[in-house]
Design goal:
The chain is an alpha/beta fold and 204 residues long. It has 8 helices and 5 strands. Strand 1, helix 4 and strand 2 form a beta-alpha-beta unit.
Length: 204
Amino acid sequence: MHLPRASREVFLSETPEMAKFSQALDQMLGELGGVFARLAPESPGILIRELEAAPRIFGCAAGRSGFILRGFLMRLMHLGLTVYVVGETITPRLQPGDLLIVMSGSGETAQPREILRRAKAHGARTLALTACLDSSIGREAHVTVHIPGTTKLTLAQEPASAQCPGSLFEQATFLLLEAAVLFLYEQRLGGDHDEMLARHANLE
């Protein structure tokens, strides 16, 4: 996977520094292509079905994963779904049948792991986004979407990556969630730009 030459020339000159930058982009795109080539074919369908079936959706993740999951929940709100971030003061009580999404590359991040266990105890449905199927979160969630990227644990079964630990998992998960948003945008709103913007924040 490579950026088209014409696109790269718009912002990359032929200096040695920019050539290295271009190589870094190609490296990232190639690694992401490898992750999606290994993604289970049923994973997108599982994610969409869980989202569409949930009366309300809660999300919990830490660190960089937390930023990615928050961005996804924001988009679901723009699409008209009822969503909350665990830990916010305005987040209501979890009810049986609600969906909790947790995102953790290692599957062992303390807060999402414990929140998942509490959610299950309260009768909620749980969905994990993780790079490690054989982890506490991967094993204990009702449904697990395996995203075979890299984690900070750098486990033996992880794909090779030149990037910082965890980056490949985070990038791949972001793109998978963005694809889910695009699918739902067409499915629920028919690609209606104005309807989506009607829910966008105007106090910015």
